[in-house]
Amino acid sequence: MIKSCGVALVRLLEKYGVDTVFGISGVHTVTLYKGLEGSSMKHISPKNEQGAGFMADGYARATGKPGVAFIITGPGVTNAATPMGQAFSDSIPMLIISSTNARASLGRGEGRLHEITDQRAVTAPLTAFSETVFEPDQIPGLLAKAFDVFNSQRPRPVHIEIPIDVLDLPVDEEWEIAPSRGKPEPDQNLIEEAAAKILASNKPLIYAGGGVRLAGRELKELMEKAQMPLVTTVAGKGVVPEDHPLSLGSGLTETAIHDRIAASDLVVVLGSEMAETDTWVPQLNIPGEIIRVDIDPQELHGNYSASLAIRADGQKAIAALSKALGNGRAKDEELVNEVKAIRSNSISLRSDLSQKHDRLVATMQEVIPENTMVLTDMTQIAYSGAYTFQSVLPDTWLHPMGFGTLGYAVPAAIGAKVGTPDRAVIALVGDGGLLYTVQEMACAHEINLPVIIVLWDNDRLGEIYDGMVRNDQEPIGVSPRNPDYVMMAKAFGFNTTQATTRAEFSDQLTAALSHKGPSFIRLHQNHDYD
């Protein structure tokens, strides 16, 4: 017999391959934490449950495995709700195990510690599913269901809440894992129809999202066989190296790309919901035919309806589609020149501020290894870099695109570095976003984690400030009195520098890459960085 449900749960998570858990222990999770005694699982202690969720997100993006967090009842769950929303929006596998009040008091509003009368009502809209455990023997089935979501469907967060009295109950026998279903295969008849449409088209284009970011080899073959240019969302950035002659990069916010989409007689959309946050226009003009491939059936006609919809795993569908094209088309040098001209035109139209960002992003790219993960916040330099940073590998420029969460970068970078200690990891964050989760710098210092924070400081919430000015209104609440970030970072135990030139930034970043602990580099918008 196993002493408690909490211990049995940790043992089962180990069998599913979970090696790291992020969380803050509390009075309602004592029994759950009992399971970590003698466990092979590493426990990372953030300073706020929001940090735990973002760390789990970064870990998942870096490793491809679900990020797991242990969260207390009530305020722990509400703190973690924002990262759950971000992971839901960006299709990130995350498992939130929380406590909740004892079964006899659920929903009664008795004023119990940490009480929410219906905790699942908070998490249900942010998850693939949220369930309450009323008896220990429900847990194996719920974990099997969770890992089936992660492995065979569109991955999204899962929340399982366990009443504190259930956590204490003994378990009669060892629990075992259950296999997940395979990812859906494409219908071959639909693949043949799609291939015929591609070969009959005169000016086709591929629009790829994060759902196919691991299908790089297959997608490159499809592009070259079909002679179709590729544009990706930020989530799909680097699926094919962005220096490929048929790559339009991740420039879906650029007018020149919008014009090319409008001129296409066929747009093949792979693994993307085609969201407003990918394009920053309410609706793209797509007069041509649309083919959509997605693992999520709700997305096959969402936002933009398809004339041909294929529900399947993106990697499997792309491989089948490429094979169905046979020998494909001959290489089109005019198309290569067109792609080059579109990208050149987009760069030339960028604002002075964006060009300053671009110079710093280019400097960063010159210094860092190509497999470095850059986790970015909602900040103007990240918006610029999302287009001009030339990713040659997927999951190297990671941005909280859909939910648009301030405070994402620092804790997510910590999670990514914990998950992949042999890769360089940078958090690119603005001064506004840093203050949302600045306390997680203490976590990085506590475990002496060699993560690098690059701060873009403009003494304001720059994007909102600029929007207010453009709207001919007084900028209110967007110009805070910032702390001395250099002194602050030193107080958190970071190796701290500030760069006023590109050369200084290059040297400081080079040094940070070899530093054995956390590093902090401050950049300020007032400097030219020419």
Low-confidence stretches: none
Strand order of the largest sheet: 2-1-3-4-6-5
Termini separation comes to: 68 Å
- The total of helices stands at 21
Relative helix content: 25-40%
How does the helix and strand content classify structurally?
alpha/beta
Q: What is the arithmetic mean of pLDDT?
A: 95
C-alpha Rg, in Å?
Answer: 24 Å
Strand content: 15-25%
Could you characterize what this model shows?
This protein is an alpha/beta fold. It has helices at 5-15, 30-34, 49-63, 75-90, 119-123, 139-152, 164-167, 188-200, 216-226, 255-263, 276-279, 314-324, 333-348, 352-367, 380-388, 409-419, 431-434, 440-446, 462-470, 485-491, 502-514; strands at 20-23, 42-44, 67-71, 94-100, 129-132, 157-163, 204-208, 230-232, 266-270, 289-294, 308-311, 373-376, 397-398, 425-430, 452-457, 495-499, 519-524. Helix 9 links the parallel strand 7 (204-208) and strand 8.
